[in-house]
Structure formats: structure tokens, C-alpha cells
Amino acid sequence: MPDALSPTTTPAALVDEYLRLLMIPDPQSARRFVAPDLQIRFTGGRVMRDPAECAAFNASRYRWVKKHVDATETVLDGTAERTIVYSIGTLYGEWPDGSSFKGNRYVDRYVVRHGLITEMDVWNDSAEWLLLRAGVVAL
Fold it and tell me: At what angle are helices 11-22 and 51-61 packed, to 10 degrees?
């Protein structure tokens, strides 16, 4: 398991471990990978400051949800001062009514500074899927 403060931990490995913990959900353990001034921006412009807020939001939207990571990509020219990491994949789980879903695309963008996550941006298809389920939009 990577250590957020280890000089040998890559930003990509740090993000992967953070996401693994966050999706358990274990926001308390995930906190060791984030800076005190963490800025989180979720789909729809929701602003959060702590991994526990992410877990609470997910609990309000899904019965349970997990991420299948297809790729973790580090932007070229990253430095210890600032490295951008993308996590790309799909969500799977159950809606509050117990019906299952999979293949819900997501992209997360992270800024890692000096071995800690300082920014997290989250985008996924959940809002569109919920609108479709509600009959508000059609395919």
C-alpha cells in the first residue's frame, strides 16, 4: 500500500490508493492522501472539502457504488510541485431502489502537490442516467 509521504510513491499510485479507500468507503483512511486545503468539485458544481463528504454524497445517490478503473494517466511534465493525474473508467453498483447498473462512465482529475492530493474534480454519467430513469429525457 503506498504511503502518501513516501518519495517513491508516484502521483498515479497515490491517486489509485486514495480511490480504493474512498470507494470502500473508508474516508478516514483516504484523508492521509489529501492536503488540509483539499478542494473537491463534483458533477453539477458541488463543492466539498473532505473525503467524508464524497462518501456521504455517494450514499445519498446510490445504495452502493464502486469504480472500475480503466486507466490512471499522469500528464507529462509533472513535478513534485504540481502533477495532474486522471482516473478514467466506469461506475457500477445499485441505485437506491436496488436496481443494478454498470458502464456508467467517469473521469476524475487530480492535482497532486508534494505527495498529497490538493484538488479533485469528478465527472460521470449518473445525472443523465437518473434523468433517463425518471423519464425526463429519452435516448
Answer: 50
Q: Give the whole-angstrom CA distance, residue 107 versus residue 103.
A: 13
Looking at the DSSP assignment, which residues form a beta bridge with residue 109? 86, 121
Q: Strand 116-124 and strand 34-42: pairing?
A: parallel
Beta bridge partners of 40: 48, 120
Neighbouring CB atoms inside 10 A of 92's CB total 16
Order of strands, sheet of 100-113, starting from the edge strand that comes earlier in the sequence: 46-48, 34-42, 116-124, 100-113, 83-94, 64-74
The candidate with the shortest Cα–Cα distance to 33, out of 109, 91, 115, 128, is 115
Q: What is the mean pLDDT of each run of 10 residues along the chain (139 residues)?
A: 65 97 96 97 95 96 96 94 97 96 97 97 94 85
DSSP-based three-state secondary structure for 137: coil
Q: Measured between alpha carbons, how far is 119 from 110 in angstroms, rounded to an integer?
A: 5
Closest CA to 54 of 112, 16, 43: 43
